[in-house]
Structures
1.
Amino acid sequence: MARALYIHWPFCAKKCPYCDFNSHVRESVDVAAWRAALVADMQAEAQATGGETLTSIFFGGGTPSLMPPELVETLLEKAERLWGFAPDIEITLEANPSSIEAARFAALAQAGVNRVSIGVQSLDDDTLKWLGRLHGAKEALNALEVAQKAFERVSFDLIYALPGQTAYEWREQLSRALDFGTSHLSLYQLTIEPGTRFATDVRRGVFDPLGDDAAADLFALTQELTEHAGLPAYETSNHARPGEQSRHNLTYWRYQDYAGIGPGAHGRRGGFATMRHRKPENFLKAVGERGHGIAEQRVLVPAEQASEALLMGLRLVEGVELTDLEMRFGIAANKLINKSKPTHLQSIGLMWREGDRIGLTRAGRPVLDAVLGELVADDLVQA
């Protein structure tokens, strides 16, 4: 049964050139219509996933900080009535650091949000402009200050491994970021995603991505600085003080059940995979006609679930316990991974193994996809 709830708000003020998330720019948003649709979608999902209190809720997007605080409060009240809340529930909302959105932080906290994740992305004005962000560095710093007063827990994002970025530049910026004293940081290397404007720019020769060796050096520097500051990595791109990890995201990475509502939201619950309609207008139409926004729901066979659990779990520094996956999915531990690969991956320093628990080393985490292609059993991948 679902222990976590994801709520997707699909609207943004502007589409960033690196973003491949399900985000849309609209001249106006009918808040009343969206309130009714999200409540109905939530109610339909609760009928399938009820029975266990929620330990976390995550408002993602899009730009959820554009939501009226009254709408956030309505959705939280509805979720509590439908599922019930654990006493220490984590309620996270993604936010942009514009002054308009920061002005809503106190009201969002009053509505029930107790953790905020702010998309700062850079502390340099020129970089922010290149990334297509609507805020400047000073505005971002002001938003962080407001957030730290309003919320119990604050995280923020930075993007690095930018074209031409040097180790000195990244060290200076990350050191400044760590000085803010937040308990969590998400530090992402720039990835050129298909279908984005940056992908078009690279194809046209407008800029070249940073080389793999230089990016690997910056990744190593990131691990060094965050560990020294007491925020070691617990996942490939996420760093936190002990006990301050994102509980909601750990639900994904530990492959526990979660419900997803709103346009394009995914869910995993009771052996089923769900996906909502991506386009906002299609989502509204579906909810109006059927009472929910599901576009696709399918059964996940045990081999597929085990494969997904491996792919997600190996992102974590803690790794995965093969005997746990064997018990959950009924597949022998020695059938989950290619038998000949662990010894080789260990010998070249990309993987560790302690009994039946396996994980990737610091050197292995930057090349996660390549390692997974070698490690996960072929039969699982083909399932």
2.
Amino acid sequence: MSNQFLRTELLFGSKNMEIFKNSRVAVFGVGGVGGYLVEALARSGIGTLDLIDNDKVSVTNINRQIVATFKTVGKYKVDVAKERILDINPNASVNIHKTFFLPDTAEEFDFSEYDYVVDAIDTVTGKIEIVVQAQNAGVPVISSMGAGNKLNPTEFEVCDIYKTSVCPLAKVMRGELRKRGIKKLKVVYSKETPLTPFRSEELCGDNNFKRQIPGSVAFVPSVAGLIIAGEVLKDLANN
């Protein structure tokens, strides 16, 4: 019988589609990477999604985030993503958490409830805590490294964190994970050397920026998100 997942089932088979339907995946961060990732998982038949993000859509998100349009500016990203997911699959279960994930908020989450965890946030302390919590719970986890200040989507690779190079965020993560005795972590990272963006004040007319805003485009973080979605599905199917 025809259904919205027929083309996916032709590649994964009915047994794996049932696995996807019964799986619960937590996605931390629903921005440039996480937004495309979440949508791909929904379009692949994942039955339950937990979306964790406290950010609202801004005009500057429109150039690269699938949840961002002028109609959604000012809305919580998790609310927009949930609406999109249910339009794709009305039978899906979507749990939203309007929370900025950090070690201080980790106690709000029971990682043992998840079948897979995805880290698509920017804050190093939060990223490390996600990995620690997932591994303590024995749940597979994949982490997105830096996608900002890059223009070449073909430079992304999937590997263990300790085999990464070039990426500044991956370097910091390697050091922090070693301190905690974590011996492996699947990541998606880019080997492209980050570009130096134009100064923010030159573009925005504001000389009061406390830090340099990273540049980003529609076709780099989206690719990272789609790669991660593929890894999640493959891992669930091979479990």
3.
Amino acid sequence: MAKRARLWLIVILALAAGVAYVQLSGSRHTASGVPIFVGSRDDVQQVAIERGGDRVELRLDGDVWRIVGHDSLEVRVAPIDNLFDRVLKVERTTLMTRSADRWSVYSVDDSTGIRLSVRNAAGEELAAFVFGQSRQDWSKNYVRIGSGKAVFLTDNNITYYLNATPDFWGGKPEPAAADTTGPDIDVGADVPSDAPPASPVLIDAKRDTSGPLKLELDVEADTAKAQE
């Protein structure tokens, strides 16, 4: 009886140890609530995105973002805000692998990944990421951070905001509206007392009016009469 009790005790302890190992192993592979970028937005002055053979570079000029090589385009506010408020604030969660041989499985290798690099005003890289689309859950992505080999699952899908075409980030500015307002005219203004009276315009009704109407004005005679 005592031997059977000891056997059951050993079994229970073994099961407890197994459960503890699984829980500990799972906690090591999960990093919930950890943003991929912990730097300040004010430090980011340059952004480069590479995707599917396309590349776009953005630089902060004073307070205005500009697209390098596309001066005719005016950068929109919404894509820039999404970059900082959604992409750089996305959180990494489950650790998927630590092996570079499996990067292609998660679409974060050199040929299929979406690259994002953020730099300061001096061109020094603050952070770099490679994103891949999850094939099992389209609401999430995979991300490889910096030069590390580890691949993490993200808590949101942010690849839509990582477009590498200039037209996604900016557009041609609206043309300036033409000024159709002329000088103010006071139609009720008084005529000066010393101004000559307006001369009547005489039209000879006997003349041929089949052609263009012609007005004959004797300006000199009218002026002389006005001065008498």
